[in-house]
Amino acid sequence: MNIVFDFGGVVFRWHPPSFLARVWPHRVPDLAAAEATAAAFFENYGGDWGAFDQGLIDAPTVVRRIAARTGWPEAEVAAVVAAVPDELQALPGTVALIQELKAAGHRLFYLSNMPEPYAEHLERAHPLRQWFEGGVFSGRVKHSKPREEIYRIAEQRFGVAPQSLLFLDDHPANITAAKARGWQALLFSNAEALRPELRALKLL
User: Fold this and answer.
1) Which residues, at least 6 apart from 188, have a Cβ–Cβ distance to it below 8 Å?
2) Pick from 124, 132, 137: which is nearest to 8 by CA?
3) Which domain holds residue 28?
4) Is the same domain home to 56 and 98?
5) CA 73/CA 24 separation, integer angstroms
6) 0.90 exceeded by the pTM?
7) Based on the domain organization, do 117 and 149 belong to the same domain?
8) Which phi and psi angles does 108 have, rounded to 5°?
9) pLDDT tens across 76-104, in order?
10) CB contact at 8 A, 150 and 55
């Protein structure tokens, strides 16, 4: 099987409310504030952040736009943007699952909405070439999930038919888009919860 991993929230830690609570404790006193602040900052990965994800604007530009839109000081917004790489810590359970799936003979790839600066950080900080045969970062192809075009690009890059791909992602919209292309797909919550589904498919 050709198994395609999302990165943020699947292979690497990424939960914007708890992230902002750590980076911005003065602005995020409780969970409700964390949820609202994350929604305003990242705009559900549309708007300013979506353009950053797609490589259409750079980090200084996204900082200026978020600050102008929200009224938050540019220096504080820049601190959040700069803190993202340290937040993207590899999830041990998923890393173990990657190693098991590779040992079982499956081909592994990735498809991630990731701005170029963060993609470069992940390539430096983690053995992506050991874990995966290849992958697609949104910031490098100027398209992002759940738009159809990035799935088509992934199919071409991986050189496999849609029906032979199994996609693991933590956002329902991305799962729906993958299935619309003919991919198999499973909604990811954590590695342990995924194991029974993979065993049912005889992949483990």
Assistant:
1) 6, 9, 10, 168, 169, 170, 194
2) 137
3) 16-87
4) no
5) 12
6) yes
7) yes
8) -115, 140
9) 999 999 999 999 999 999 999 999 999 99
10) no
pLDDT tens-digit readout, 165-202: 999 999 999 999 999 999 999 999 999 999 999 999 99
What per-residue confidence (pLDDT) applies to 147?
95
As a whole-number percent, the residues of the chain with pLDDT over 70 amount to: 100
Please, which residues have CB within 8 angstroms of residue 2's CB and are 6 or more apart in sequence? 106, 107, 108, 109, 158, 160, 164, 165, 166
Give the span between the Cα atoms of 24 and 50, in whole angstroms: 21
Report the number of distinct structural domains present in the chain: 2
39, two tokens? 């929604």
What is the C-alpha separation between 19 and 86, in angstroms, rounded? Answer: 10
The region that residue 140 occupies, defined by phi over 0 for left and psi between -120 and 50 for alpha, beta otherwise, is alpha
Per-residue pLDDT at 31 exceeds 90: no
Residues 109 and 181 in one domain: yes
Q: How confident is the model at residue 159 (pLDDT cuts 50, 70, 90)?
A: very high
Distance CA 80, CA 122 (A): 17
> DSSP code of 89?
P
Cα–Cα distance measured from residue 23 to residue 16, given in angstroms and rounded to the nearest whole number: 10
